[in-house]
Amino acid sequence: MSARTLLSLILGVALGVGIGIVVAPDPVDQGPLAVPRATESADVNRVEVPVGAPTSEARPLIAETRNRDDDTGGPTARAPGEEDLISAHLMAWARQTYLETAQQEFSTQPSEATTTAAMELFRQGVLWLPAQLARSYGPTRDREVEQAVSAADGASLLALAAAGLYTPDPGILTGPLLDASVARRAGGSNVDGPYFSDDDGFVTKGLTIVFGSGRHSLDEKRLRGTDRRSLPSDVSIVGAGMDATLLTLNNISVAGNVERFSLRDLTIDCENDGLFDLRRGNATLDLLRVRILRFDAGHGGADIFTGDGVMLRATACEFLGGFGRSPGGGNLFSVHSTHRIYARFENCAFDLLRLGHSASLLNSKNDLRFVGCRFDRLSQSHYDQLPAAWFSSCNFGEMLPSFSDPGLARDLAELFPGW
Asked: For the chain, how big is the Rg over CA atoms in Å?
């Protein structure tokens, strides 16, 4: 949690004082990070302070400690007094932000008495939060990171990274740890793809859905577990080869994390939509010899991977634009800037697409590795904005200044003649 977020939290509580409502539950219900709260009382100057927070009665003791000598005649080790920690500039900023926020949210200014009470709560919160954060974000968080790394728990690592609690060095999450995080761990039963598509059953952990040669379709709603909402872990969809199996599948959207989901040996027709829309959890994905096309539809969801955090391994895959209704108007990634992308592409081909929205790729904390890949007809501007991308033994063809050119359209018959 950043300092800016913490101060916003304090101000949010203070604003609750300003409008005379309780903005947080009792500390016992709040979880590990309880915050001070105002009472529902007509006396707006009265605030309740959680146990452990410094009160006005404690301040004289702090000041007294500053002047007390120990038995050796020297000054005692002392904590800095409040006047050393909370400057007039900080309090002026807090007051201004408080008043501006109240005006924006409620089109009115709180009274001077209410503002004074709110600033007192802010002052107390500043002194109280460090110790509370140590209890909530100290060794416990370090153990969470250690456990997630040890278990190669990609979804947890993505969540910790998004929260700012885990910042791996470049290459850590695109090397062996990525391999361990996306590799399938549980094998289950195999099911015939066409039969599964027509059945009304549900996906189970470790299930492999097998499609033979030919053209097939799969409704993404079939990719649900018994709760009809989430996708169990270690599910795989397998074809007979990217030139033999054409599967229409798009907009995979489930609740929660998607763990170790894999696609292998097939071509995916996104039918003018995105492939993954996973904005309710983190995803660990593994693609092997997969071709993905018809995602470049030009609308907001025309992205192959949309979601929260993504850990992805793609090997010998093809990501081809030009087959959708807006040739070139599609993205490889669309991930919110507060989340993370850790991806490795080996021996893959990219043609006529953008690697991602600027906000998705400009975050220098992402890590994308391209090894032995071929790039054709990429957006020059998007390629230039990749501080988190590393290219090794890659080949680059023509760079294009703009996209969505109907003259660049391609037909599926190029790849599947007679289909």
From this structure: 28
SS3 of 61-112: the string is: HHHHHHCCECCCCCECCCCCCHHHHCCHHHHHHHHHHHHHHHHHHHCCCCCH
Q: What is the dihedral of CA 265, 271, 272, 275, to 10 degrees?
A: -40
Task: Quick: pLDDT tens for 275-321.
Answer: 998 888 899 999 999 999 999 887 776 789 988 889 999 999 999 99
User: Do 282 and 158 form a contact (C-beta atoms < 8 A)?
Assistant: yes
In what helix (H) or strand (E) does residue 200 lie, and over which residues does it extend? none
Distance CA 284, CA 65 (A): 54
Global confidence as pTM: 0.69
Residue 116 has φ and ψ, to the nearest 5°, of -60, -40
| C-alpha 207 chain-centroid distance | 27
- SS3 for 206-225 is CCEEECCCEEEECCHHHCCC
Place of tokens 């101000």: 11
Let me know: does 14 contact 97? Beta carbons within 8 Å: no
pLDDT over 60 (residue 12): no
Task: Return the SS3 of 23.
Answer: coil
With b for 16 or more beta-carbon neighbours within 10 A and e for fewer, the 33-54 pattern comes to ebbbbbeeeeebeebebbeebb
First-to-last C-alpha distance (Å) of the chain: 54
